[in-house]
């Protein structure tokens, strides 16, 4: 019989510790009916009843499928889920545009470098530098 009392005492202590941790870590808007200090005192002075009361009536309930809290009788607030970058068409479009701009800039620098090298070779060989074609407007 003594073992049963020890077991029930340990269950009561574990339940009280879990309730205290839950109460202390709860958001301020996630605590119902009483202020946090009142819940802490109830859990400390009446460990079994206070712990059960905290889990039943003190903390805000959370829906099973998500992490948004809800008030009794109200529907959970619909939240926009973040979209993965590879599923976001705007992000993919911005990557494409950036890549295209970088490619054009790289191509322009290569052409400029090639013209400079050709002009240097012509000067070394004594030929006049080539004139750049001017785009007609």
From TrEMBL:
Disordered as annotated region, ranges: 63-103, 118-137
Segments passing through the bilayer: 36-57
Keyword field contains Ion transport: no
Keywords: Cell membrane, Membrane, Transmembrane, Transmembrane helix
InterPro entries hit by this protein: CLS_N
Membrane topology summary: Multi-pass membrane protein
Pfam families assigned: PLDc_N
GO (cellular component) term, any one: plasma membrane
Cellular compartments annotated: Cell membrane
Keyword Cell membrane: yes
Domain Cardiolipin synthase N-terminal: 14-59
Listed Basic and acidic residues bias regions: 76-103
This protein's name: PLDc_N domain-containing protein
Species annotation: Verrucosispora sioxanthis
């Amino acid at each position: 019989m003594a073992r049963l009392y020890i077991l029930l005492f340990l269950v009561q202590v574990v339940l009280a510790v879990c309730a205290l941790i839950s109460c202390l870590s709860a958001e301020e808007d996630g605590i119902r009916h009483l202020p946090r200090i009142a819940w802490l005192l109830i859990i400390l002075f009446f460990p079994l009843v206070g712990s059960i009361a905290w889990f039943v009536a003190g903390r805000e309930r959370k829906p099973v499928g998500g992490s948004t809290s809800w008030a009794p009788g109200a529907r959970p607030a619909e939240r926009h889920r973040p979209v993965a970058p590879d599923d976001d068409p705007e992000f993919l479009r911005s990557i494409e545009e950036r890549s295209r701009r970088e490619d054009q800039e790289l191509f322009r620098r290569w052409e400029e470098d090639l013209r400079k090298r050709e002009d240097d070779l012509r000067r070394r060989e004594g030929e006049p530098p080539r004139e750049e074609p001017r785009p007609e407007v």
